[in-house]
Amino acid sequence: MTANSIWIGIGLFGQLLFTSRFLVQWIVSERKRESVIPLAFWWLSISGGLTLLCYAIWRQDPVFILGQATGLIVYLRNLVLIRRKSREV
């Protein structure tokens, strides 16, 4: 197995993590019969985004790097806001 194949596997795994967040969100929303964004959505966003960022860095793709890095900031900020709100309650 070549390094190239390993990195493609890492990229595909990151995409799988990132895409699974929508499946989780859909299942939770269907169960609650309303649109809900569960905590798992943000953790999958971070896990998938970080994995894809590593892959983008390996590919040396500045567009992909910028997109994933920016997304990670948003996902982390949402977790901070959720944590802050839970402390208030």
Summed up, what is this model?
This protein is mainly alpha-helical and 89 residues long.
Secondary structure elements and pairings:
Elements: H1 3-32, H2 39-59, H3 62-88
Strand content: under 5%
Number of domains: 1
Which regions are unreliable across 5 or more consecutive residues at pLDDT < 50? Answer: none
Q: What is the succession of H and E elements?
A: HHH
**Radius of gyration, in angstroms, nearest whole number:** 15 Å
- Report the count of strand segments: 0
Largest sheet: none
What features would you highlight for this structure?
mainly alpha; 89 residues
Walk me through what this model shows:
The chain is mostly helical. The protein has one domain. Helices cover about 90% and strands about 0% of the residues. It contains three helices and no strands. The chain has helices at about 5-30, 40-60, 60-89. Helix 1 (about 5-30) runs antiparallel to helix 2 (about 40-60) and helix 2 runs antiparallel to helix 3. The protein is globular and about 50 Å long. The termini are far apart. The mean pLDDT is about 95.
